[in-house]
Amino acid sequence: MNKSIIKIAFIGAGSIGSLFGGYLANISSEKYEIEMNFFGRKAHIMAINENGLILEKGSEEILIESINGYTDIHDYLNHNPESRLKFVFLTTKAYDIDEALVEYKGLIKKMDWIVILQNGIGNEDIVKHYVPKNKIIRAITSNGALIRQPGKVKHTGLGFTRIGFPFKDDIPEEEKEGAIADLGLCAELMSRAGIKTEIVNDIIGNCWEKIFVNIGINAFGALTRLKNGELINSEKLRNLIRDAIEEALKIARQRNINLSKKNYIDVCFDVARNTKDNLNSMLQDIIKGKKTEIDFINGRIVTYSEDEDQVPINRTITYLIKGLENSEL
Q1: Contact in structure between 83 and 110 (CB atoms under 8 Å)
Q2: DSSP track, 152-170
Q3: Which of 140, 296, 155, 280 is nearest to 218 (CA)?
Q4: How do residues 257-293 score in pLDDT, each as one tens digit?
Q5: Which of 196, 210, 262, 291 is catalytic?
Q6: Scanning 106, 268, 276, 305, which has the fewest C-beta atoms within 10 Å of its C-beta?
Q7: Which residues contact 253 (CB under 8 A, 6 or more apart)?
Q8: 287-299: string of b/e by CB count within 10 Å (b at 16+)?
Q9: Per residue in 34-72, is it b (16+ CB within 10 Å) or e — as a string?
Q10: Taking the CB of residue 257, how many other CB atoms lie within 10 A of it?
Q11: Is 210 a catalytic residue?
């Protein structure tokens, strides 16, 4: 039986990109053969090309030697002039979307689907300026990852992964059957790789549901330097978190986002308890003196508001994080 060769690339193969890409590259199947390509930072890519990628999951270390790593898009295109990719995962930081899609436009022309796997809301509204809306898949995850050292990634937390079409109404009727089949293939591959993945009808609503948790944890942790669980030990901090999420809920309702009847404040507090020892990603960025994704989290709530006075907590937090970025950078 001939295997189907599925060609996949990750633009921005950092921690989460290497985690997902590594698991996908490690699929053992009589049905599929995965050709995996990473595009990332020089030290990490060189380590992968020389020694393979090591995924650390609990006490287990998985060595994956079937990944092709590149730091230069032209190097890939020269070696693969006729190659067509099934899925290109965009796993850069959200603020690098424009730069990445301009740099990798030659790759984008040779793909069937781009899969946005990033933090934040509104990312797809940037991507649609570079990729047809009917070729975009949005993915969200609560899995955690950390680059231990170049070539070695730790799976720091298990969680959910969901995918869907952010612009499903823009898929032509004659293409819908094929699009649904490809979305199913993407979910099947990730689930087969060990990342349980759910297809959802309203991925935008799911992105908002995740952002309420990020709004309640990320910036507050970055400003206070507290671990997730420590944030909710203070009644005054809990009240601020509650107010920030309430502001975001108000903006979501104004934008007619379809939300469930969950209590998102309780959801946020539950996540903080369940990840009590975590230093969230925004806090890690601040500690490392790196730019944060504040513009796609609390800052997006400010951008989406009709009047910034509607969202005073998110406005204040956004400006404070930007000030902190400037001081650290």
Answers
A1: yes
A2: EEEEEE---EEEE-TTGGG
A3: 280
A4: 999 889 999 999 999 998 888 889 899 899 989 999 9
A5: 210
A6: 106
A7: 259
A8: eeeebbbbbbbbb
A9: bbbbbbbeeebbebbbeebbbbbeeeeebebeebbbbbe
A10: 17
A11: yes
| C-alpha distance from residue 304 to each of 96, 249, 296, 311 (Å) | 20, 12, 11, 10
Complete DSSP assignment for 61-113:
EEEE--EEEES-HHHHHHH-TT--EEEEEE-S-GGGHHHHHHHTHHHHTTEEE
Q: Which amino acid is at 132?
A: P
According to the model, what pLDDT value does residue 200 have?
97
Note the pLDDT tens digit of each residue in 155-204.
988 889 999 999 999 999 999 999 999 999 999 999 999 999 999 999 99
Identify the residue whose tokens are 């993945």: 197
